[in-house]
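Lecture 7 notes: from sequence to structure.

We start with a single chain of 253 residues. Read the sequence below before looking at the structure.
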Amino acid sequence: MSQPSANIPEQYILETVEISRYFGAVAAVDGLSISIPRQGVTSIVGPNGSGKSTLINLLSGTLPLDGGMVKIDGLGLTTIHAYETPDHSITRTFQEVRLFDQISVLDNILVVLTTRRLWPSIFERTSREHREKAREILEKVGMWDKRSSLAMDLSYGQRKLLEIGRAMALNVNIYLLDEPFAGLFPQMLERVKDILKGMRDEGRTIIFVSHNMDIVREMADHLIVMDGGKLLLAGEVEDVLNQPEVISAYLGA
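Now the structure, written as tokens:
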């Protein structure tokens, strides 16, 4: 179900209006209203169990809303289906990387560039444009030399890079990234940061969840802090992180 939203502030590409998600009697997201600026990188932070990953799941249609509305570029949605999110110019990555393990790195990208369905894309004749685009993406994420490797044979960091590459292949405006930096060695960490900075410079809206405050300070232009499924504070990074209520939420004081 959807309905148009009038007079949405032009600077916001994504908003939530009192959205909720319950697991039994527990509100993982509890009447949350936030606004994501169109420009720049927004980070979502909060202590464990604050609802960050649940929020990403709701915005991407991985979990259904129990209440409220999501506004995407002016369109109000009370139901989001995961298979429809590319039509709303949204894609995501997962904290636990999800790839087609039994096919090659190159074919993982071609799946997205062609039919977006596994078996038809394998047997479909890919055009030169598809292959050139796949090469461009794999070179951007530093994975072209692994193009013939099976996804299952990649290292953890390489799998992260390939998942980001698959998201890039959708060529959408909004990227939801759940812990994109977690578990990466320093060299791989720098590569992921460079990729996201490049996407930001192209005008994409980047929204990422992270526990690493050093990376948040370096990468984010805007910050949203959640606690107990609710919005605690939102604003510029240093201003928000220096607020006593944010410090208390993290330290339990």
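Residues 96-171 form one domain. Keep this in mind for problem set 3.
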